[in-house]
Specification:
The structure holds two protein chains of two kinds.
Chain A: E1 3-9, H1 16-25, E2 32-36, E3 55-58, H2 67-81, E4 86-90, H3 97-101, E5 110-120, H4 124-127, H5 134-142, E6 146-150, H6 157-169, E7 176-178, H7 184-188, E8 206-210, H8 215-227, E9 231-240, E10 243-250, E11 253-258, E12 267-272, H9 274-277
Parallel strand pairs in A: 1-4, 1-5, 2-3, 2-4, 5-6, 6-7
Antiparallel strand pairs in A: 8-12, 9-10, 9-12, 10-11
Chain B: E1 2-9, E2 18-23, E3 29-33, H1 36-41, E4 52-55, E5 57-59, H2 65-68, E6 80-81, E7 87-88, H3 94-107, E8 114-119, H4 131-135, E9 143-147, E10 152-155, H5 157-163, E11 174-176, E12 182-187, H6 188-199, H7 210-222, E13 225-233, H8 237-247, E14 255-261, H9 267-278, E15 285-286, E16 290-293, H10 326-338, E17 343-347, H11 350-366, E18 374-377, H12 383-392, E19 395-398, H13 402-414, H14 417-420, H15 426-431, E20 436-438, H16 449-458, H17 475-481, H18 484-489, E21 507-510, E22 527-532, E23 535-536
Parallel strand pairs in B: 1-4, 5-13, 8-9, 13-14, 14-15, 14-16, 16-17, 17-18, 18-19, 19-20
Antiparallel strand pairs in B: 1-2, 2-3, 4-21, 6-7, 9-10, 10-12, 11-12, 21-22, 22-23
Helix pairs in contact in B: 5-6, 7-8, 9-10, 10-11, 11-12, 16-17
Classes of the chains: A alpha/beta, B alpha/beta.
Bound molecules: zinc ion (ZN).
Zinc ion is lined by residues 61, 63, 231, 441 of chain B.
Chain lengths: 280, 538
């Protein structure tokens, strides 16, 4: 049986721990196993952990000697052996959640599920210009999977609109939702970002190769692919100065990295439904 | 009482060089002077009469991993000494590397996976060996090369097959060739662990390793170290028990200062544990300080820098990465200072230094420093930052070996020659009156205070270029920076670091005089012996 693996990201004060506590307080029949990997994070409410149907493990922060990896693999194994049905990782305040989501591959029978990044509506604007955190924070949100505006219990849709505007001013064109619109469980009940084409067999999917004239066009396409639920994947290379960049879109997550040495072919392969692919 | 005679004894105290040193039965220095001491303390032991005595070297920033990692064969670019004393030549070309691997292959039982360490791709450029090259060594056994930064591995096809990695993978960090096939290079946890899960990783669990500690002691002893830091350790109770057993043994040749790594706990838990650890300390095993790691490394393009890296392009880390959220690290620094716990803060990039200085300023405003706090590495500090550190009363431990090992790469690939030529600015820091220690960060660079000293005195890169000559310091200053200054950073200057009456007789015996020899020869002076508490170590 495959165990879903979800990642909850967000900076300090975004409400990760209370989100998880709410989840554990009313698990709606799902046995959640929680892994915590946050420096200085207060422990998840121990009172919610009594009983044998949930477990929380705290992880070392992978700064020395691969300890995160080994701890995480061990932690996942332990939670799986305890029969947990859904593993949730609370990741560090400086982590890029989409990259952490890839750690699902650490264990067999683990499948990436939801990637959620919580945002504190009160500190969003400040963090985006913070002297230490601004660039990291932008990356965290860009690679944040589903963004959820949290800590706005009294918020209404106008706060949401304001949050969305603040994000797009910072160049982050990802839709943000209000956490309070659903219970935590609902955000985790289906994979965010990679679910929409589930059920299509590979033969139903169309493929197309497009060549971007520069990195900014490739980025634009990647954002378009990420926003379109009918695009399953985009991957390929684009020239950028002397370097070649590798563009990858999986679900809503975009990653842009320097291509390995020796890549000569340029072009982006788009995979999705025929209708969606035709728009590229 | 024991009296030793030497050709010269540099005490590093105000007075002149001496020739005789008397040590009492508790291993403390009873007297230091000339031939007149022979009358007072009996006949001198003359076995070191032709040699030079200096205070025992203090390696203020290295890791016990230096002992652990040697359980694997070394394949780094530069030659290194094994802790047991054998010189292992560097693999400074692809053919040399493959030849070494073939040699190992021939000596190993069939099908056992091969793990090696010390490789750094930055020295090979376009020629760096990939999967196919390793396949030429063996397709029978998995081969895993750990890069020296521990964030990358290069593996052969057998390892990829066992891990089930093929072109259809969806994992970040699995690099591919032009044909889209994995090329054997795997970056970061998610990718690396595919391989570790399939073929194992002998370095895991490295903190609690008695044999590794013994090797660490040997590595220190053979390079003249009588006190070494182990500057990031989770210090679980079992690890501490192992340390007590190994280090307190009278045959263990040096003092060990192990600092608690606090990157995975709350500040309150860190304070509680650090105070608790004081109880487990002894004369030889020092515990109770903590270590915070704020950023990555400059050669790994992960140190937090104000200006993006020269080759940083859009690889997602233009300005490097934080290891933890700055406000949480600030809270940790303030909480430890409030509890009078010494804090060692790893800061490589200039922005990381900015952050640490701001955090320490807040801490000092709230509670004046009662214990030494140290900026570790501090490689890119500018004049203003040094002045701030001085005003705050912080100590500095520079990574002097960087000039030699990565100076060329820093000019071309990381921060550019302007910044590279003033990296680890020891001259300027000393002129401002700062306490300046120098370190190797072994196993990142080889354990060896004389090489560290040489690097700061000469500032010559591996290619032979002179890098930032205005930041050179003289031999006497550099000797202080590998003895008394690091003793201050470890809060031990009352006991060690110089040779003065009442201090511990921790002494390093050298075949040549580091203060008078040609500066370029400092690194080659043989270490003859070390004395710990007045006893010659073995
Ligand atoms: Zn270190």
């Amino acid at each position: 049986m495959n165990t879903p693996f979800s990642v909850i990201g967000g900076f300090l004060g975004a409400g990760k721990t209370s989100f998880i506590n709410k989840l554990l307080a009313d698990p709606q029949g799902v046995r959640y196993g929680v892994l915590v990997n946050d420096f200085g994070s207060l422990a998840v409410d121990a009172g919610l952990l009594s009983g044998d149907d949930r477990d929380v493990l705290s992880l070392a922060n992978g700064c020395a000697c691969c300890s995160l990896g080994s701890d995480l693999a061990t932690g996942i194994n332990k939670l799986q052996s305890l029969g947990m049905e859904h593993i949730v990782l609370e990741c560090s305040g400086v982590a890029i959640p989409s990259r952490i989501g890839a750690l699902a591959k650490l264990a067999p029978n683990l499948v990436p599920h939801a990637t959620i990044t919580l945002i504190n509506g009160h500190t969003l604007a400040d963090l985006l210009v913070d002297q230490w955190m601004a660039d990291t924070y932008v990356k965290q949100l860009q690679g944040g999977g589903q963004l959820l505006l949290n800590r706005t219990d009294t918020a209404d849709l106008s706060d949401l609109a304001q949050g969305q505007q603040t994000l797009s001013h910072a160049g982050i064109d990802k839709p943000v939702a209000l956490q309070t619109l659903h219970s935590p469980q609902q955000w985790l009940t289906r994979p965010v970002g990679s679910d929409q084409v589930e059920g299509h067999s590979v033969s139903q999917l169309a493929t197309q190769t497009v060549i971007a004239k520069d990195l900014s066009q490739a980025k634009q396409w990647a954002a378009q692919a990420a926003a379109d639920a009918q695009i399953y994947r985009m991957k390929g290379f684009v020239q950028h100065g002397a370097a070649r960049m590798l563009i990858q879109v999986v679900g809503k997550d975009v990653s842009i990295t320097v291509a390995p040495e020796g890549v000569t072919e340029l072009g982006l392969v788009v995979i999705g439904t025929a209708k969606a692919v035709a728009q590229f | 009482m024991k009296l030793y005679q030497a050709r010269t004894i540099h005490s590093l105290e105000q007075d002149q060089a001496h020739t005789h040193i008397a040590i009492d039965d508790d291993g403390r220095i009873a007297a230091i002077g000339g031939a007149e001491l022979a009358g007072q303390y009996g006949a001198a032991d003359t076995r070191f009469a032709d040699q030079v005595m200096v205070p025992g070297f203090v390696e203020g920033h290295a890791h016990a991993m230096e002992g652990v990692i040697w359980k694997l064969p070394y394949v780094g670019f530069y030659g290194r000494y094994h802790p047991d004393g054998d010189y292992v030549a560097g693999c400074d070309s692809v053919p040399a590397l493959l030849a070494r691997l073939k040699e190992l292959d021939a000596s190993m039982p069939a099908d056992e996976p091969m793990f090696v360490w010390g490789y750094d791709a930055i020295y090979f450029g376009e020629d760096k060996p990939m999967r196919q090259a390793l396949d030429s060594v063996s397709t029978q056994r998995p081969i895993v090369i750990h890069h020296s930064n521990l964030h990358l591995i290069t593996v052969n096809s057998t390892a990829l097959d066992r891990a089930g990695i093929d072109r259809d993978h969806l994992i970040d960090g699995i690099y591919t060739d032009e044909q889209g096939e994995p090329n054997g290079e795997l970056a970061e946890m998610a990718a690396m662990f595919q391989v570790y899960n399939a073929v194992g990783n002998p370095v895991f669990g490295g903190f609690n390793d008695a044999a590794g500690l013994v090797r660490y002691g040997r590595s220190g002893r053979r390079s003249g170290v009588t006190t070494a830091a182990d500057l990031y350790n989770q210090l679980e109770p079992e690890t501490v028990a192992t340390m007590q057993q190994v280090v307190n043994d009278q045959d263990f040749p040096m003092r060990l200062v192990s600092t608690l790594g606090v990157m995975q706990v709350t500040s309150q838990a860190a304070v509680t544990r650090a105070i608790e650890l004081r109880q487990a300390a002894s004369d030889k095993l020092r515990l109770g300080a903590v270590k915070i790691v704020t950023d990555g490394s400059i050669q790994g393009f992960s140190a937090r820098v104000r200006q993006p890296y020269v080759n940083g392009v859009e690889n997602g880390v233009e300005n490097g990465v934080w290891v933890a959220p700055p406000p949480a690290m600030e809270d940790m620094i303030m909480a430890c200072n409030r509890a009078d716990i010494p804090v060692h803060v790893h800061v490589n990039g200039d922005q990381a230094s900015d952050f640490a200085l701001q955090a320490f300023a807040k801490a000092a405003a709230e509670h004046a420093f009662q214990v030494p706090h140290v900026l570790q590495h501090a490689q890119m500090m500018d004049s203003q930052q040094l002045r701030q550190a001085k005003d705050l009363g912080l100590n500095i431990n520079f990574f002097a070996n960087h000039t030699y090992y990565w100076g060329d790469q820093h000019c071309q690939q990381t921060v550019g020659s302007d910044i590279a030529s003033r990296m680890n600015p020891a001259r300027e820091a000393l002129d401002m009156g700062l306490v300046v220690a120098l370190h190797s960060d072994a196993p990142v660079t080889p354990m060896g205070p004389l090489h560290v000293m040489w690097s700061a005195v000469n500032r010559v890169t591996a290619s032979g270029a002179l890098l930032g000559p205005e930041q050179r310091i003289n031999a006497a200053e550099a000797l202080c920076a590998i003895t008394l200054a690091p003793a201050i950073t470890l809060g031990m200057e009352q006991e060690i670091g110089s040779l003065a009456v009442g201090k511990r007789a921790d002494i390093t015996v050298l075949a040549g005089d580091p203060l008078t020899v040609d500066p370029m020869a400092i690194k080659d002076i043989p270490v003859v012996a070390t004395l710990l508490d007045g006893k010659v170590t073995h």
